[in-house]
Write a structure and sequence with these properties.
Length: about 500
């Protein structure tokens, strides 16, 4: 390992809608950032894909651009960490690195029939004891199975050792460390825990589930901790830089928010909404519709676990209003439009475009707008869309408190939507708790930088990371209790209208 004389650490944040490279200094301040969007591909209703080659191009572009912003070279970087959209599944050729099919995105619902078939043979929770996850279209295992079943020749080639599978972290790590010329085929425990193929207790691939899903083990990456040197980069711009941290995006945000103690919670507002609670070394089974997952594992330390509440559509609803309805020109316009009205006008928007995730797990649900009258206008729709994010978050918070037995004092928030003051105030109002936004808001990239930095001793320990966390803004609840209760009751009523839309 190189002596840590470098003053910077890089993080590659490959998300659902864009890829970003951020470079941080020793005080965890961002000194450079480059970001590029990639195409969202919708071949059929309920299907969502990305082009893996486009993601790889964007990755190379943002790394080069971020370095150029500060005139930095590979020799200035102590390490690079990776954080990624989870569950999104890629199969590529070992010999060439070419994908055999587009990436199937976490939101994609094409395996709904497989979910129903496997559930019929043992219930939706038949693998929950091993994996912490219900059967759902969300996770990677059945997406991988779909590729093996539907891409001509894929199963035979996979069984012959010609094909590799990975979530986006694996795909990028393999390419960054050499690709077909000796690239490392690895993943970390957090991403592996989202495939529905890893056993939470052993943190290894579960042979019984691999058998049930008919997945050849040879195509799976080797599972590592979230913070260690997996290999060195072969990409020209960062050649020789250790690739030293991998965390799924939500676990990275947990680390970036310095939630290292059991009971600490963060909520990330992005394409979807993801609320995680650190449960320490304890694997806590959920009885309230949450997921049990790995929070992180730093080097040789024991793995830490988490409870997670996943909401599929939050920021994506704002994009939908922009792209599909043309209500706004850019996503940031949503707040101004919502502020043209004093309240939601009785309108409730349940964005079950991909079914409902936590705490319902109803794949047959679909989006509904309820309470429409002639009075309702564009502003009310915009406000109802923002409020939907806060209502869904409250449902997850209540489930988490029930499972963990821990009452939340406050909620730490991050992600693209936390700059929306109207949303954050309403979140505090409907939760009846303080909402805290940290001074460093790029917590997902920061978490990946932390993981990589710990691996190469750029950062000393988690105490140093906790010292970096500070509050930028806090929102206190201002809504009368009677109004809060009535709005939540109406929201719950609207949610029931979305159930069982698909027969």
């Amino acid at each position: 390992m190189r002596t840590v004389t470098q003053n910077y650490i890089a993080a590659l944040d490959q998300g659902t809608t864009s890829t970003r490279c951020m470079i941080f200094d020793r005080a965890a301040r961002a000194v450079a950032v480059a970001q590029k969007e990639h195409e969202q591909i919708f071949p059929k209703p309920g299907w969502v894909e990305h082009d893996p080659l486009e993601i790889l191009r964007r990755t190379k572009e943002v790394i080069a651009e971020a370095l150029a912003q500060r005139g930095l070279r590979a020799a200035d970087l102590a390490a690079i960490g990776i954080t990624n959209q989870r569950e999104t599944s890629i199969v590529w050729e070992r010999r060439t690195g070419r994908p055999v099919y587009n990436a199937i995105v976490w939101q994609d619902m094409r395996v709904a029939e497989d979910v129903a078939r496997y559930s019929a043979a043992g219930g939706q929770d038949r693998f929950r004891a091993q994996t912490g996850l219900p059967l759902s279209t969300y996770f990677s295992g059945l997406k991988l199975r779909w590729i093996l079943e539907n891409v001509p020749g894929a199963r035979a080639r996979a069984e012959g050792g010609e094909l590799l599978f990975g979530t986006v972290d694996s795909y990028l790590a393999w390419h960054l460390t050499g690709g077909a010329n000796g690239g490392m085929h690895v993943t970390d425990v957090t991403n592996a825990s989202r495939t529905q193929l890893m056993n939470l207790a052993t943190r290894d691939w579960d042979e019984a589930i691999l058998g049930a899903f008919e997945i050849p083990r040879a195509m799976l990456p080797r599972i590592h901790s979230s913070s260690e040197v997996y290999g060195t980069a072969a990409l020209a711009e960062i050649a020789g830089v250790p690739v030293a941290g991998i965390l799924g995006d939500q676990q990275a945000a947990l680390a970036g928010q310095a939630c290292f103690q059991p009971g600490e919670v963060k909520n990330t507002y992005g394409t979807g909404c993801f609320l995680l609670m650190n449960t320490g070394e304890r694997i806590v089974p959920s009885k309230s519709g949450l997921l049990t997952t790995v929070a992180y594992q730093f080097g040789q330390e024991k793995a830490r676990y988490a409870l997670e509440g996943s909401v599929a559509i939050t920021g994506a609803l704002v994009q939908w209003l922009r792209d599909n309805l043309g209500l706004i020109e850019k996503s940031s316009d949503i707040e101004a439009l919502a502020c043209t009205v004093p309240d939601n006008g009785g309108v409730y928007f349940v964005p079950a475009f991909s079914g409902l995730y936590a705490p319902y797990w109803k794949a047959s649900a679909r989006g509904v707008i309820a309470g429409l009258t002639r009075y309702a206008n564009r502003g009310h729709l915009a406000r109802a869309a923002l409020e939907a994010t806060a209502f869904q978050t409250r449902e997850v918070v209540e489930a988490m408190e029930q499972d963990s037995g821990i009452a939340l004092d406050s909620l730490r928030v991050d992600g693209g939507m936390v700059g929306n003051d109207l949303l954050m105030q309403f979140q505090a109002d409907i939760l009846n708790r303080e909402v805290l936004r940290p001074a460093i808001q790029e917590t997902t990239a920061l978490g990946a930088a932390y993981a990589a930095g710990l691996a190469v001793k750029f950062f000393a320990d988690t105490k140093e990371l906790r010292a970096n966390w500070a509050v930028d803004h806090r929102w206190k609840p201002q809504l009368a209790e009677a109004r809060r209760a009535e709005m939540y009751r109406q929201w719950k009523k609207a949610v029931t209208r979305s159930f069982d839309w698909v027969d």
